[in-house]
Amino acid sequence: MTMRDAPFEPNELQKALLGYDATTLEEALLDWTRAHWAMAARGQVYCKKEALETIRGARGVRTDENKLVLELAARVAIAERELLCRALGAILPEWLEQNYGLKPPVAAEAEQA
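Now predict its structure.
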């Protein structure tokens, strides 16, 4: 298991400073994103145009190598954003129903019919 794959285990100082206690929602989101990480990898390939538009106005980028590094960072960030949105869409409705009894309008209407 690499450092990235290891679950976050705060030490005593981190616990005292952060008050970190993972919620069931956070655990479910982390589990889902770990299981679907390939979506983010593919997303980095497909978001090239958005990344280039994002960094277009960046100042202080003097070399092609610096521009490439900035583009790759933008691609990673965009792919992570999309993976998180997909995770929320997959996990949040069921979590809200289990924890608060809330149902999406479509599901609620279907039950009433």
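The chain is about 75% helix and 0% strand.
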